[in-house]
Write a structure and sequence with these properties.
The protein is an alpha+beta fold and about 140 residues long. The protein has one domain (about 25-135). Helix content is about 35%, strand content about 25%. The protein is built from five helices and five strands. It has helices spanning about 5-10, 20-25, 30-35, 45-55, 65-85; strands spanning about 25-30, 45, 95-100, 110-120, 125-130. The protein has a five-stranded mixed beta sheet with strand order 1-2-5-4-3. Strand 4 and strand 5 form a beta hairpin. The longest helix is centred in the middle third of the chain and has 22 residues, at about 65-85.
Length: about 140
Amino acid sequence: MTESLTDIFGSTINEYSRADAIADGTLHDVTAIAREQGILFPVAVAAHAWADAVAWGDNHGAMQDETGRLWDVLSIAAYALRKARRLGLTGLQPFTVYVVPNSAGAQEPEPVALGIEVGPGDLGEPVLTITSAADR
C-alpha cells in the first residue's frame, strides 16, 4: 500500500503562496517592467528591498521616481543574472545598486546590497525574487 504525504504528515496547517505574498504587499510584482529588461521569468521584489532601493516619497520632489529607481534595480539584476549564467553560478546572485536614500534631505547615492534568485512559483514554475542580500 502506497501512503501519501498527507497520510504520513497529516493535513497542511497553513499555506502561504507567492500570489498571497503579492496580494498582501510582501512582494511587489514587477514582471511587466522586467520583461522590458529582457528578463523572461516572473519577477517580484521583496517589500524590504523595495523600501531600501525603489520606494520614493512624493515629498522628496521630482529628483527621482519609483519607476526610474526600479528600472535601475532591474538593469543591474539583469546583468547579475547574465553573469551568473555565463559563469554557471546558482543560488542568490548578489548585486549592488546605488540610490539616494528615501529620506528627507538626502541627495547623495548610497550602496544598497540586493540579490536575485530563481525559485519555484506556486505551480513549480521558475520565478525570480529580488531581496536584500544582507538578509542572507
